Amino acid sequence: MKIRKKAYGNANMVGKNIERFRKQSGIKQKDFIAKIQIMGCDMNPTSYSKLEGQVRSATDKEVYVIAKILNVKMEELFSTEENEPQP
Question: For the whole model, what pTM was predicted?
Fold first, then answer.
């Protein structure tokens, strides 16, 4: 697994959690991008990397599709370390 080279940005709130849930699910980034594309979101590896790195904004459709793929509530993608949702 690659280590993140750059610090997270501040362009979105969901990137860190998307990355965390994706890694917990054991899904490689390229496979995850393929699933996003199958669900109807036009996303390339650079765009997805910027999303996870919080360098670009996430659209509502992207958040919806990613939550569906990860099988989590959309609200969970917006949680912070201090305010993790309870099981």
Answer: 0.85
Residue 8 contacts residue 54 (beta carbons within 8 Å): yes
Q: Using CA atoms, how far apart are residues 80 and 13, in angstroms rounded to an integer?
A: 9
CA distances from 62 to 2, 6, 24, 31 (A): 23, 23, 19, 16
Reply yes or no on domain 15-72 having CATH 1.10.260. yes
Q: Quick one: 14 exposed, middle or buried, by C-beta within 10 A (0-12, 13-18, 19+)?
A: buried
Output the CA torsion 12→78→39→46 (10° steps): 30
Question: pLDDT (tens digit, 9 = 90+) per residue, 14-71?
Answer: 999 999 999 999 999 999 999 999 999 999 999 999 999 999 999 999 999 999 999 9
Amino acid at 10: N
For the chain, domain boundaries: 15-72
How many C-beta atoms lie closer than 10 Å to residue 62's C-beta? 21
